[in-house]
Amino acid sequence: MSFVARFVSAVLSVVMLGVGPALADNPFGVMLWPKGSDDLSLVAARAKGLGVGWLRPPAVFIDRWQSGSSCPICSEPARAGLDVALTVRNGGWDYTPRRPSTAPTDMEAYKQTLTSILNAWKPKILVVENEENNPQFYRAGATPSENLAAYGRELTTACSVAHAQGIACTNGGLSSEAASAVTWFTMLERGASETACGFAKRAFSGTNGGPTAETLCQYRTSADVPADVKTALLRDGEQMLAFYKAAPIDMVNLHWFGRDAAVLANIADVVAHASGKPVMSNELGQWRWDADPLNVRPLLRAAFAAGVRPAIWFSIDTPSTLSLFEEDGSLRQTGREFAHQMSGRK
């Protein structure tokens, strides 16, 4: 079957997601967190109202979990009929003063606490850490290779705990920038310079301090890319693909923000083929400065056609991203486009 035929077939399947029993296999979700006076039950209800099947709740931190204590909120997603992709981090802090997570030093204690967390939340997928190639979120050693080795030990331990409970396990998420860059570089390595240039024109706008397509199209082979440019651009992404292939994960988790549905399809294809594993995303969305509601539905369709399962939309207001909801809980235009796709409405 041709790519076009597969895409059309997948789009028809997406349309059916809002009808009858197909909803049980809905691969879409939202990353939607409580704010203000909200609680997780309200968040779960809003997510369910969008028509999704998955929720990414706030990360759970090993160093802040009280083993054996009750967790009333942990059952709220299941009560709403949602599957959970749960991010568990060993430590760190995402607010000022920001600090990255680090690898556990006592693996037995880590296993015991993680077991307690999984017993309470009962997620369908365990996500280990967040953007393991991004030092803002994860730093275990002095060098990228030391970070990766330490993360590998943590990931192996965490997956063994998850698998013992029948829970799927994945990495924290290859960062969006690295996912785009490694896809471009892989195309160059395959000798497809024109394809790589075309990808760069769609994927790299030069905004937010990133590279421009004009610069990247000058490189005709992977050997042409200067070492400093490669290091800054790939952000260890090329190491990560080989790492994911050997890791005991059930799928590769990637993060991606952008406007172009074809770019997302290209990235998913490269990551799946390089790792030999299916692809998921617990962080898919649009940059604030590049957001267009009309791109939401094509992106969701592309994710489905490319086999990105689950595909969880980033619906949180930050300086660089936008929620599907207004402050008062009403849907923004992007949210209405998202909900229309979930329901199958034109």
TrEMBL record:
Organism from which the protein derives: Telmatospirillum siberiense
Keyword Signal: yes
Signal peptide start-end: 1-24
Keywords: Signal
Statement: the UniProt record of this protein carries the keyword Signal: yes
InterPro entries listed in its UniProt record: GH
Protein name, as recorded: Asl1-like glycosyl hydrolase catalytic domain-containing protein
